[in-house]
Amino acid sequence: MSPSTSPRNRTNLWLWIVQVLLAVVFLFSGGSKMAMSSEALAAQSHLPGSFMKFIGVCEILGALGLVLPGLFHVRPRLTPLAAMCLLVIMIGATVSTAIVMPVVLPLPLIVGLLTAYVAYGRWRLAPLDASRQRTDVGLAR
To answer: Measuring CA to CA, how many Å separate 123 from each of 45, 79, 82, 127?
Structure first.
């Protein structure tokens, strides 16, 4: 990075890096939950398998919400909203991990903190450029 790079540009770059990494993590996690049977999910957790499938769908949708609005410049305010919803999931995952497997507690805690960083960063520090938001001609009015 050049010395003339503004702090906001650096923040924007770091947010994009974290958003893409989190999207990969949540796509993998949600995809894994969707690929497994409900019985196998219930055996791994103290939660019902159907609830874990629901969490998997939410993780996939949240992962898409982290990157697609910024890439396509459509509804950029969905990115911090997706991050906040994923943060709720990560709070639950942290509590659940603390109960079932406390030895791996740092994993959901770190993912949750990174998700909180994206939520706050895209809300306050470096919001996605709403001026470049794409609007359809028929829907603009």
So the answer is: 33, 9, 11, 5
**Which of 124, 118, 130 is closest to 26 using CA atoms?**
118
Q: What one-letter code names the amino acid at 119?
A: A
Contact by Cβ (8 Å): 56, 32: yes
Interacting residues of 45 by C-beta distance below 8 A, sequence separation 6+:
52, 96, 100
Give pLDDT tens digits along the chain (141 positions): 555 588 889 999 999 999 999 999 999 999 999 999 999 999 988 899 999 999 999 999 999 999 999 999 999 999 999 999 999 999 999 999 999 899 999 999 999 999 999 999 999 999 997 555 555 544 544
Q: What is the largest CA-CA distance in the chain?
A: 55
Report the predicted TM-score, pTM, of the whole model to 2 decimal places: 0.88
DSSP per-residue letters across 19-75: HHHHHHHHHHHHHHHHHS-HHHHHHHSSS-HHHHHHHHHHHHHHHHHHHHHHHHTS-
85, 58 Cβ separation under 8 angstroms: yes
Tokens for 19, please give them: 């958003």
